[in-house]
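Figure 2 data, in text form.
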Amino acid sequence: MTHPLTGSYWVAPGQLLAGLMHGLQDLSAGWPTAPPWREELKGLVDRFATKCRP
């Protein structure tokens, strides 16, 4: 299915997220422990969520 505005293929957000998570799992599978950037990313997301809250 193509997106009416862009004309490019439209991917359901759920599919995109599943693909992204699968890719991250593949990447992190090589590390014995969680890489530091994952904790950093989590911190950034937490900070952003806190800031955006009214």
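Caption note: Helices lie at 13-28, 36-52.
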